[in-house]
From TrEMBL, chain A:
Domain 2Fe-2S ferredoxin-type: 232-314
CDD domains attached to this UniProt entry: fer2, PDR_like
Organism: Chelatococcus sambhunathii
Keyword annotations of the record: 2Fe-2S, Flavoprotein, Iron, Iron-sulfur, Metal-binding, Oxidoreductase
Highest taxon of the lineage: Bacteria
Protein name: Oxidoreductase
Pfam families for this protein: Fer2
Residue stretches making up the FAD-binding FR-type domain: 1-106
Length: 314, 207
Protein backbone atom coordinates (compact mmCIF):
# COMPACT_ATOMS: atom_id res chain seq x y z
CA UNK A 1 0.00 0.00 0.00
CA UNK A 2 1.06 3.52 -0.20
CA UNK A 3 2.78 6.09 1.91
CA UNK A 4 0.82 9.26 2.44
CA UNK A 5 1.87 12.79 3.14
CA UNK A 6 1.09 14.22 6.59
CA UNK A 7 -0.34 17.72 6.74
CA UNK A 8 -0.75 20.15 9.60
CA UNK A 9 -4.43 21.03 9.35
CA UNK A 10 -6.26 23.68 11.30
CA UNK A 11 -9.49 23.02 13.16
CA UNK A 12 -12.04 25.57 11.96
CA UNK A 13 -15.11 24.09 13.59
CA UNK A 14 -15.61 21.69 16.47
CA UNK A 15 -19.12 20.83 17.58
CA UNK A 16 -20.64 17.97 19.47
CA UNK A 17 -22.79 15.77 17.26
CA UNK A 18 -23.83 13.76 20.33
CA UNK A 19 -22.70 14.28 23.93
CA UNK A 20 -19.60 12.16 23.27
CA UNK A 21 -18.94 12.57 19.55
CA UNK A 22 -16.90 15.59 18.48
CA UNK A 23 -17.41 16.57 14.83
CA UNK A 24 -14.38 18.44 13.46
CA UNK A 25 -13.84 20.47 10.32
CA UNK A 26 -10.21 20.79 9.22
CA UNK A 27 -8.62 23.04 6.60
CA UNK A 28 -5.11 23.45 5.23
CA UNK A 29 -3.66 26.78 6.34
CA UNK A 30 -1.89 27.29 2.97
CA UNK A 31 -3.47 25.12 0.31
CA UNK A 32 -7.00 25.89 -0.85
CA UNK A 33 -7.58 22.26 -1.79
CA UNK A 34 -6.84 19.07 0.12
CA UNK A 35 -5.96 15.77 -1.56
CA UNK A 36 -9.07 14.17 -3.09
CA UNK A 37 -10.82 11.15 -1.59
CA UNK A 38 -13.61 8.73 -2.29
CA UNK A 39 -16.51 7.99 0.08
CA UNK A 40 -15.42 5.43 2.69
CA UNK A 41 -11.83 6.74 2.89
CA UNK A 42 -10.08 7.44 6.18
CA UNK A 43 -7.21 9.61 7.35
CA UNK A 44 -4.61 9.03 10.03
CA UNK A 45 -4.60 11.40 12.95
CA UNK A 46 -1.11 11.62 14.43
CA UNK A 47 -0.84 12.18 18.14
CA UNK A 48 1.95 14.14 19.82
CA UNK A 49 3.35 10.92 21.29
CA UNK A 50 3.74 9.48 17.81
CA UNK A 51 0.71 7.19 17.95
CA UNK A 52 -1.58 7.06 14.94
CA UNK A 53 -5.34 6.59 14.85
CA UNK A 54 -7.65 6.21 11.89
CA UNK A 55 -10.78 8.26 11.36
CA UNK A 56 -13.16 8.00 8.42
CA UNK A 57 -13.87 11.16 6.49
CA UNK A 58 -17.53 11.99 7.01
CA UNK A 59 -17.83 15.22 5.02
CA UNK A 60 -18.45 15.87 1.35
CA UNK A 61 -15.83 14.49 -1.07
CA UNK A 62 -16.84 17.13 -3.60
CA UNK A 63 -15.76 19.88 -1.20
CA UNK A 64 -11.97 19.65 -1.02
CA UNK A 65 -11.64 22.86 0.98
CA UNK A 66 -12.02 20.89 4.22
CA UNK A 67 -11.99 17.42 5.75
CA UNK A 68 -14.50 16.38 8.38
CA UNK A 69 -14.00 13.67 10.97
CA UNK A 70 -16.05 12.64 14.01
CA UNK A 71 -14.27 11.42 17.12
CA UNK A 72 -16.12 9.41 19.73
CA UNK A 73 -14.81 9.86 23.23
CA UNK A 74 -13.74 6.42 24.47
CA UNK A 75 -13.01 6.76 28.16
CA UNK A 76 -11.74 3.18 28.28
CA UNK A 77 -9.82 3.55 25.02
CA UNK A 78 -6.15 4.09 24.42
CA UNK A 79 -6.29 7.84 25.03
CA UNK A 80 -6.42 9.25 21.52
CA UNK A 81 -10.06 10.27 21.62
CA UNK A 82 -9.66 11.95 25.01
CA UNK A 83 -6.67 13.86 23.70
CA UNK A 84 -8.66 14.92 20.63
CA UNK A 85 -11.63 16.06 22.69
CA UNK A 86 -9.42 18.08 25.01
CA UNK A 87 -7.10 19.56 22.42
CA UNK A 88 -8.80 19.94 19.05
CA UNK A 89 -10.64 23.21 19.55
CA UNK A 90 -11.08 25.81 16.82
CA UNK A 91 -7.65 27.18 15.89
CA UNK A 92 -5.79 24.06 17.02
CA UNK A 93 -3.53 22.19 14.64
CA UNK A 94 -4.04 18.50 13.92
CA UNK A 95 -1.48 16.38 12.09
CA UNK A 96 -3.50 14.49 9.51
CA UNK A 97 -2.45 12.24 6.64
CA UNK A 98 -3.75 12.28 3.11
CA UNK A 99 -6.72 9.90 2.79
CA UNK A 100 -6.58 6.20 2.08
CA UNK A 101 -9.45 3.93 1.16
CA UNK A 102 -9.94 0.34 2.23
CA UNK A 103 -13.70 0.61 2.19
CA UNK A 104 -15.21 1.80 -1.07
CA UNK A 105 -18.52 1.80 -2.88
CA UNK A 106 -18.80 -1.40 -4.89
CA UNK A 107 -20.47 -1.87 -8.25
CA UNK A 108 -23.85 -3.24 -7.20
CA UNK A 109 -27.51 -3.22 -8.15
CA UNK A 110 -28.54 -2.76 -4.50
CA UNK A 111 -26.52 -1.37 -1.58
CA UNK A 112 -27.46 -2.28 1.99
CA UNK A 113 -25.67 -0.71 4.94
CA UNK A 114 -25.77 -1.87 8.53
CA UNK A 115 -24.26 0.87 10.64
CA UNK A 116 -23.68 0.95 14.38
CA UNK A 117 -23.02 4.17 16.31
CA UNK A 118 -19.80 5.92 15.29
CA UNK A 119 -19.54 3.44 12.40
CA UNK A 120 -21.74 5.96 10.60
CA UNK A 121 -18.70 8.04 9.62
CA UNK A 122 -17.61 6.12 6.48
CA UNK A 123 -21.21 5.17 5.65
CA UNK A 124 -22.51 8.76 5.50
CA UNK A 125 -20.53 9.92 2.43
CA UNK A 126 -21.04 6.54 0.77
CA UNK A 127 -24.81 6.64 1.25
CA UNK A 128 -24.92 10.31 0.27
CA UNK A 129 -23.08 9.60 -2.98
CA UNK A 130 -25.25 6.57 -3.79
CA UNK A 131 -28.49 8.39 -3.00
CA UNK A 132 -27.40 11.35 -5.13
CA UNK A 133 -26.73 8.99 -8.02
CA UNK A 134 -30.20 7.52 -7.62
CA UNK A 135 -28.81 4.11 -6.66
CA UNK A 136 -30.88 1.55 -4.80
CA UNK A 137 -29.64 2.03 -1.24
CA UNK A 138 -30.96 1.12 2.20
CA UNK A 139 -29.29 2.13 5.47
CA UNK A 140 -29.96 0.50 8.85
CA UNK A 141 -28.59 2.80 11.56
CA UNK A 142 -28.35 1.33 15.07
CA UNK A 143 -27.71 3.38 18.19
CA UNK A 144 -28.72 3.46 21.82
CA UNK A 145 -30.98 6.47 21.33
CA UNK A 146 -31.67 9.26 18.90
CA UNK A 147 -29.60 11.64 21.01
CA UNK A 148 -26.67 9.24 20.88
CA UNK A 149 -26.80 8.66 17.11
CA UNK A 150 -23.91 10.63 15.57
CA UNK A 151 -24.48 12.56 12.34
CA UNK A 152 -28.12 11.47 12.34
CA UNK A 153 -29.43 14.67 10.77
CA UNK A 154 -26.88 14.46 7.94
CA UNK A 155 -27.66 10.81 7.29
CA UNK A 156 -31.37 11.54 7.27
CA UNK A 157 -30.90 14.41 4.86
CA UNK A 158 -28.79 12.21 2.58
CA UNK A 159 -31.02 9.14 2.66
CA UNK A 160 -34.55 10.36 3.30
CA UNK A 161 -36.91 7.35 3.31
CA UNK A 162 -33.98 5.00 2.59
CA UNK A 163 -32.89 5.30 6.22
CA UNK A 164 -34.17 2.95 8.93
CA UNK A 165 -33.21 3.85 12.47
CA UNK A 166 -32.97 1.33 15.30
CA UNK A 167 -32.79 3.01 18.70
CA UNK A 168 -32.84 0.59 21.60
CA UNK A 169 -34.12 3.33 23.95
CA UNK A 170 -37.27 3.41 21.82
CA UNK A 171 -37.61 -0.35 22.06
CA UNK A 172 -36.41 -0.88 18.49
CA UNK A 173 -33.36 -3.09 18.50
CA UNK A 174 -31.86 -4.10 15.19
CA UNK A 175 -32.09 -7.81 14.60
CA UNK A 176 -30.16 -9.72 11.99
CA UNK A 177 -33.52 -11.12 10.90
CA UNK A 178 -33.96 -7.72 9.20
CA UNK A 179 -31.33 -8.80 6.70
CA UNK A 180 -32.67 -9.89 3.39
CA UNK A 181 -31.53 -12.93 1.44
CA UNK A 182 -28.76 -12.36 -1.05
CA UNK A 183 -29.90 -11.39 -4.52
CA UNK A 184 -27.47 -11.41 -7.42
CA UNK A 185 -25.62 -8.10 -7.70
CA UNK A 186 -26.38 -6.76 -4.22
CA UNK A 187 -23.70 -5.55 -1.80
CA UNK A 188 -23.84 -5.47 2.00
CA UNK A 189 -21.68 -3.00 3.93
CA UNK A 190 -21.23 -3.26 7.68
CA UNK A 191 -19.54 -0.63 9.81
CA UNK A 192 -19.61 -0.60 13.56
CA UNK A 193 -18.28 -2.36 16.63
CA UNK A 194 -16.79 -5.87 16.23
CA UNK A 195 -19.86 -7.49 17.83
CA UNK A 196 -22.22 -6.01 15.24
CA UNK A 197 -19.81 -6.92 12.45
CA UNK A 198 -19.65 -10.51 13.53
CA UNK A 199 -23.41 -10.86 14.02
CA UNK A 200 -24.18 -9.37 10.62
CA UNK A 201 -21.46 -11.36 8.86
CA UNK A 202 -22.71 -14.63 10.37
CA UNK A 203 -26.32 -13.88 9.51
CA UNK A 204 -25.42 -12.75 5.99
CA UNK A 205 -23.42 -15.90 5.34
CA UNK A 206 -26.39 -17.96 6.51
CA UNK A 207 -28.60 -16.03 4.08
CA UNK A 208 -26.42 -16.82 1.13
CA UNK A 209 -24.34 -13.65 0.89
CA UNK A 210 -21.03 -14.51 -0.75
CA UNK A 211 -17.85 -13.27 0.92
CA UNK A 212 -17.06 -10.93 -1.96
CA UNK A 213 -20.37 -9.04 -1.60
CA UNK A 214 -19.87 -8.40 2.08
CA UNK A 215 -17.74 -5.35 2.89
CA UNK A 216 -16.88 -4.31 6.38
CA UNK A 217 -14.92 -1.58 8.05
CA UNK A 218 -13.38 -2.28 11.42
CA UNK A 219 -11.28 0.17 13.35
CA UNK A 220 -10.20 -2.54 15.70
CA UNK A 221 -8.55 -5.71 14.47
CA UNK A 222 -9.62 -9.09 15.74
CA UNK A 223 -8.79 -9.40 19.39
CA UNK A 224 -7.95 -12.93 20.35
CA UNK A 225 -6.61 -13.05 23.87
CA UNK A 226 -5.80 -16.73 23.55
CA UNK A 227 -3.42 -16.19 20.65
CA UNK A 228 0.09 -17.36 21.48
CA UNK A 229 2.69 -15.98 19.09
CA UNK A 230 5.27 -18.52 17.95
CA UNK A 231 8.64 -17.77 16.36
CA UNK A 232 8.98 -18.27 12.60
CA UNK A 233 11.31 -17.55 9.69
CA UNK A 234 10.63 -15.11 6.89
CA UNK A 235 12.51 -15.41 3.61
CA UNK A 236 12.81 -12.49 1.21
CA UNK A 237 12.04 -13.65 -2.34
CA UNK A 238 14.33 -11.04 -3.92
CA UNK A 239 17.54 -11.94 -2.08
CA UNK A 240 16.82 -15.35 -0.57
CA UNK A 241 17.81 -13.94 2.81
CA UNK A 242 16.02 -15.52 5.78
CA UNK A 243 15.13 -13.49 8.87
CA UNK A 244 14.12 -14.99 12.18
CA UNK A 245 11.05 -13.51 13.86
CA UNK A 246 11.07 -14.27 17.60
CA UNK A 247 7.79 -14.85 19.41
CA UNK A 248 7.86 -11.46 21.11
CA UNK A 249 8.45 -9.39 17.98
CA UNK A 250 6.37 -8.59 14.92
CA UNK A 251 7.39 -9.40 11.39
CA UNK A 252 7.20 -5.67 10.64
CA UNK A 253 9.71 -4.88 13.40
CA UNK A 254 12.13 -7.55 12.21
CA UNK A 255 11.91 -6.29 8.62
CA UNK A 256 12.59 -2.79 9.85
CA UNK A 257 15.62 -3.98 11.85
CA UNK A 258 17.05 -5.32 8.61
CA UNK A 259 16.67 -2.01 6.81
CA UNK A 260 13.52 -2.99 4.92
CA UNK A 261 11.51 0.17 5.37
CA UNK A 262 7.82 -0.63 5.04
CA UNK A 263 5.18 2.04 5.19
CA UNK A 264 3.13 1.50 8.31
CA UNK A 265 0.52 3.34 10.21
CA UNK A 266 -1.79 1.79 12.81
CA UNK A 267 0.34 -1.31 13.44
CA UNK A 268 -2.86 -2.94 14.66
CA UNK A 269 -3.81 -4.79 11.49
CA UNK A 270 -6.47 -2.29 10.54
CA UNK A 271 -5.14 0.26 8.09
CA UNK A 272 -3.41 -1.97 5.54
CA UNK A 273 -0.37 0.33 5.10
CA UNK A 274 2.23 -2.36 5.61
CA UNK A 275 0.52 -5.10 3.60
CA UNK A 276 2.85 -6.96 1.25
CA UNK A 277 2.70 -10.11 -0.84
CA UNK A 278 3.83 -13.61 0.04
CA UNK A 279 4.37 -16.60 -2.18
CA UNK A 280 4.83 -19.57 0.12
CA UNK A 281 4.00 -20.57 3.65
CA UNK A 282 1.02 -20.86 5.97
CA UNK A 283 0.12 -17.41 7.24
CA UNK A 284 -1.82 -16.79 10.44
CA UNK A 285 -3.85 -13.75 9.45
CA UNK A 286 -4.67 -11.52 12.40
CA UNK A 287 -5.55 -8.31 10.58
CA UNK A 288 -8.84 -6.76 9.59
CA UNK A 289 -7.52 -5.14 6.43
CA UNK A 290 -7.05 -7.90 3.86
CA UNK A 291 -10.22 -9.37 2.35
CA UNK A 292 -10.49 -13.14 2.66
CA UNK A 293 -10.21 -13.53 -1.09
CA UNK A 294 -6.70 -12.02 -0.99
CA UNK A 295 -5.38 -13.87 2.03
CA UNK A 296 -3.69 -16.53 -0.04
CA UNK A 297 -1.11 -14.03 -1.27
CA UNK A 298 -1.12 -10.95 0.99
CA UNK A 299 -0.01 -10.49 4.59
CA UNK A 300 -0.12 -7.64 7.11
CA UNK A 301 3.32 -7.94 8.77
CA UNK A 302 2.38 -5.72 11.70
CA UNK A 303 0.14 -8.35 13.32
CA UNK A 304 0.11 -11.47 11.17
CA UNK A 305 2.54 -14.33 11.56
CA UNK A 306 3.38 -17.62 9.91
CA UNK A 307 3.56 -21.24 10.86
CA UNK A 308 7.26 -22.15 10.73
CA UNK A 309 8.12 -20.11 7.66
CA UNK A 310 6.89 -17.74 4.99
CA UNK A 311 8.40 -16.38 1.76
CA UNK A 312 7.67 -12.70 1.31
CA UNK A 313 7.37 -11.04 -2.04
CA UNK A 314 9.94 -8.41 -1.04
CA UNK B 1 -2.24 33.87 21.45
CA UNK B 2 -4.66 31.10 22.34
CA UNK B 3 -3.92 29.61 18.98
CA UNK B 4 -0.25 29.32 19.82
CA UNK B 5 -0.93 27.89 23.24
CA UNK B 6 -3.15 25.20 21.81
CA UNK B 7 -0.56 24.39 19.22
CA UNK B 8 2.27 24.11 21.71
CA UNK B 9 0.14 21.96 23.97
CA UNK B 10 -0.80 19.68 21.13
CA UNK B 11 2.48 18.92 19.43
CA UNK B 12 5.90 19.77 20.78
CA UNK B 13 7.90 21.25 17.93
CA UNK B 14 11.18 19.90 19.24
CA UNK B 15 11.06 16.14 19.77
CA UNK B 16 12.67 14.66 22.84
CA UNK B 17 16.48 14.82 22.66
CA UNK B 18 17.92 11.98 20.68
CA UNK B 19 21.45 11.17 19.61
CA UNK B 20 22.65 12.88 16.43
CA UNK B 21 21.80 10.68 13.44
CA UNK B 22 24.70 8.90 11.81
CA UNK B 23 25.83 10.74 8.70
CA UNK B 24 28.44 9.70 6.21
CA UNK B 25 30.78 12.64 5.60
CA UNK B 26 30.29 13.70 1.99
CA UNK B 27 33.88 13.11 0.90
CA UNK B 28 33.95 9.74 2.69
CA UNK B 29 30.93 8.59 0.71
CA UNK B 30 31.73 5.95 -1.89
CA UNK B 31 30.67 8.30 -4.68
CA UNK B 32 32.07 11.56 -3.32
CA UNK B 33 35.45 10.12 -2.32
CA UNK B 34 36.04 8.83 -5.85
CA UNK B 35 34.70 11.86 -7.71
CA UNK B 36 36.85 14.16 -5.62
CA UNK B 37 39.98 12.97 -7.40
CA UNK B 38 38.50 13.10 -10.90
CA UNK B 39 38.99 16.49 -12.54
CA UNK B 40 36.43 18.14 -14.77
CA UNK B 41 32.91 19.49 -14.55
CA UNK B 42 31.40 22.92 -14.84
CA UNK B 43 33.18 25.85 -13.25
CA UNK B 44 32.46 29.53 -13.13
CA UNK B 45 28.71 29.20 -12.70
CA UNK B 46 26.88 31.61 -10.47
CA UNK B 47 23.57 30.15 -9.29
CA UNK B 48 20.92 31.24 -6.85
CA UNK B 49 19.01 29.66 -4.00
CA UNK B 50 15.28 29.87 -4.76
CA UNK B 51 13.55 27.98 -1.95
CA UNK B 52 14.34 26.34 1.38
CA UNK B 53 12.09 23.51 2.57
CA UNK B 54 12.19 21.30 5.63
CA UNK B 55 9.88 18.57 6.94
CA UNK B 56 9.60 18.05 10.69
CA UNK B 57 9.37 14.23 10.37
CA UNK B 58 9.07 11.45 7.81
CA UNK B 59 6.09 11.89 5.47
CA UNK B 60 5.24 15.35 6.79
CA UNK B 61 4.56 18.01 4.20
CA UNK B 62 7.58 20.18 3.48
CA UNK B 63 7.41 23.68 4.93
CA UNK B 64 9.05 26.67 3.31
CA UNK B 65 11.48 28.75 5.34
CA UNK B 66 12.54 32.36 4.81
CA UNK B 67 15.89 31.50 6.36
CA UNK B 68 17.47 28.37 7.68
CA UNK B 69 20.27 27.44 10.00
CA UNK B 70 22.65 24.83 8.62
CA UNK B 71 24.66 22.85 11.14
CA UNK B 72 27.94 21.32 10.00
CA UNK B 73 27.88 17.54 10.04
CA UNK B 74 24.22 17.47 10.91
CA UNK B 75 21.67 19.19 8.66
CA UNK B 76 19.14 22.00 8.54
CA UNK B 77 17.56 22.87 11.88
CA UNK B 78 13.94 21.73 11.81
CA UNK B 79 14.45 19.08 9.15
CA UNK B 80 13.78 15.39 9.67
CA UNK B 81 17.34 14.43 8.73
CA UNK B 82 18.76 16.90 11.25
CA UNK B 83 16.57 15.33 13.93
CA UNK B 84 16.98 11.76 12.72
CA UNK B 85 13.29 11.09 12.05
CA UNK B 86 13.50 10.85 8.26
CA UNK B 87 12.29 7.86 6.32
CA UNK B 88 15.87 6.91 5.56
CA UNK B 89 17.46 8.12 8.81
CA UNK B 90 18.12 4.55 10.03
CA UNK B 91 20.43 4.06 7.05
CA UNK B 92 23.63 6.07 7.48
CA UNK B 93 24.28 8.08 4.34
CA UNK B 94 25.12 11.58 3.19
CA UNK B 95 21.88 13.52 3.47
CA UNK B 96 22.52 16.55 5.65
CA UNK B 97 21.14 18.76 2.89
CA UNK B 98 19.55 17.78 -0.42
CA UNK B 99 19.34 20.05 -3.46
CA UNK B 100 17.37 19.94 -6.70
CA UNK B 101 17.55 22.04 -9.84
CA UNK B 102 14.62 24.25 -10.74
CA UNK B 103 15.57 23.47 -14.34
CA UNK B 104 14.75 19.76 -13.75
CA UNK B 105 11.37 20.69 -12.28
CA UNK B 106 10.71 23.01 -15.23
CA UNK B 107 11.45 20.14 -17.60
CA UNK B 108 9.02 17.89 -15.74
CA UNK B 109 6.33 20.53 -16.10
CA UNK B 110 6.98 20.57 -19.89
CA UNK B 111 6.87 16.75 -20.00
CA UNK B 112 10.43 16.69 -21.28
CA UNK B 113 11.37 13.91 -21.92
CA UNK B 114 7.88 12.50 -22.51
CA UNK B 115 8.31 9.40 -20.35
CA UNK B 116 4.83 9.57 -18.85
CA UNK B 117 1.35 10.56 -19.89
CA UNK B 118 1.80 14.28 -19.56
CA UNK B 119 3.46 17.16 -17.73
CA UNK B 120 4.02 16.81 -13.99
CA UNK B 121 3.68 19.97 -11.96
CA UNK B 122 5.39 19.66 -8.61
CA UNK B 123 4.36 22.31 -6.13
CA UNK B 124 7.29 23.91 -4.27
CA UNK B 125 8.60 21.43 -1.74
CA UNK B 126 6.63 18.47 -3.10
CA UNK B 127 9.92 17.08 -4.41
CA UNK B 128 11.00 16.82 -0.75
CA UNK B 129 14.50 18.19 -1.37
CA UNK B 130 15.68 20.94 0.96
CA UNK B 131 17.06 23.50 -1.45
CA UNK B 132 15.68 24.40 -4.85
CA UNK B 133 18.38 26.13 -6.89
CA UNK B 134 18.69 27.75 -10.32
CA UNK B 135 21.78 27.89 -12.45
CA UNK B 136 23.71 25.23 -10.53
CA UNK B 137 24.84 22.09 -12.40
CA UNK B 138 24.25 19.72 -9.50
CA UNK B 139 25.28 16.58 -11.40
CA UNK B 140 28.78 18.07 -11.70
CA UNK B 141 29.17 18.66 -7.99
CA UNK B 142 29.76 15.19 -6.55
CA UNK B 143 33.15 15.43 -4.82
CA UNK B 144 33.14 19.23 -5.07
CA UNK B 145 32.88 22.03 -2.52
CA UNK B 146 30.56 24.93 -3.17
CA UNK B 147 29.15 27.90 -1.33
CA UNK B 148 25.49 28.76 -0.68
CA UNK B 149 25.57 32.21 0.89
CA UNK B 150 27.85 31.84 3.90
CA UNK B 151 27.45 28.07 4.10
CA UNK B 152 29.90 25.63 2.49
CA UNK B 153 28.52 22.34 1.17
CA UNK B 154 30.26 19.22 -0.08
CA UNK B 155 28.64 17.09 -2.79
CA UNK B 156 28.55 13.52 -1.51
CA UNK B 157 26.48 11.66 -4.07
CA UNK B 158 23.81 12.11 -6.67
CA UNK B 159 20.32 11.94 -5.28
CA UNK B 160 18.24 9.10 -6.56
CA UNK B 161 14.48 9.21 -7.00
CA UNK B 162 12.59 6.86 -4.71
CA UNK B 163 9.34 4.97 -5.06
CA UNK B 164 8.42 6.35 -1.66
CA UNK B 165 8.18 9.85 -3.15
CA UNK B 166 6.04 8.53 -5.96
CA UNK B 167 3.69 6.92 -3.45
CA UNK B 168 3.59 9.98 -1.27
CA UNK B 169 2.70 12.27 -4.13
CA UNK B 170 0.56 9.87 -6.12
CA UNK B 171 2.47 11.11 -9.18
CA UNK B 172 4.74 9.06 -11.47
CA UNK B 173 7.89 11.06 -10.72
CA UNK B 174 10.33 8.17 -10.40
CA UNK B 175 11.31 7.79 -14.03
CA UNK B 176 11.34 11.49 -15.02
CA UNK B 177 13.53 12.38 -12.02
CA UNK B 178 16.06 9.70 -12.88
CA UNK B 179 19.54 11.28 -13.18
CA UNK B 180 18.24 14.74 -12.30
CA UNK B 181 16.94 14.11 -8.83
CA UNK B 182 19.53 16.42 -7.31
CA UNK B 183 22.47 16.16 -4.95
CA UNK B 184 22.99 14.93 -1.40
CA UNK B 185 25.44 17.09 0.48
CA UNK B 186 27.31 17.35 3.72
CA UNK B 187 27.73 20.69 5.46
CA UNK B 188 31.39 21.69 5.83
CA UNK B 189 30.73 25.13 7.29
CA UNK B 190 27.37 25.91 8.87
CA UNK B 191 25.55 29.21 8.95
CA UNK B 192 22.32 30.87 7.91
CA UNK B 193 21.03 30.72 4.34
CA UNK B 194 18.20 32.61 2.69
CA UNK B 195 16.47 32.46 -0.70
CA UNK B 196 18.41 34.75 -3.03
CA UNK B 197 21.78 33.62 -1.72
CA UNK B 198 24.40 33.13 -4.43
CA UNK B 199 25.87 29.70 -5.16
CA UNK B 200 29.36 29.16 -6.57
CA UNK B 201 32.05 26.55 -6.85
CA UNK B 202 34.98 26.60 -4.40
CA UNK B 203 38.41 25.08 -4.75
CA UNK B 204 39.00 21.73 -3.17
CA UNK B 205 40.88 21.68 0.10
CA UNK B 206 43.84 19.34 0.48
CA UNK B 207 42.65 16.07 1.96
Amino acid sequence: MTARVVMKLKVVAARFSTPNVLHLRLVHPLRPELPPWEPGAHVDLRLPDGKIRQYSLCGDPDDLSAYEIAVKREDAGRGASIWAHQTLKPGAIAHVSAPRSNFAIQKASRHIFVVGGIGVTPALPMARRLAAEGADVLVHFCARSKAEAPLLADLREACGPRLRTWFTADGRRFSVSELEDYVEGACLYVCGPPRLLKAVQDAATARGWPEARLRSEAFQATLDENFKPEPFDATLASTGKTLHVPADRSLLEVLRDHGIVMPSSCELGVCGSCVCGYTEGVVIHRDAAIPVAERQHRIAPCVSRARVSVTLDL
Amino acid sequence: MRDDETRAGAYAEAPSPRPAPKMVEAFDHAAGSLARHVPGGATGFRGVLLHIHVAPAASYEMEELAEAECVAGRGIVGDRYHVGTGTYSPKPDTREVTLIEQEALDALSRNDPPLQRGPIALAPGDHRRNLTVRGVPLNHLVGRRFRVGEVILRGGRLNFPCKYLEELLGLPVYLPLYNRSGLNCGIERGGVIRPGDGIELLNDVPA
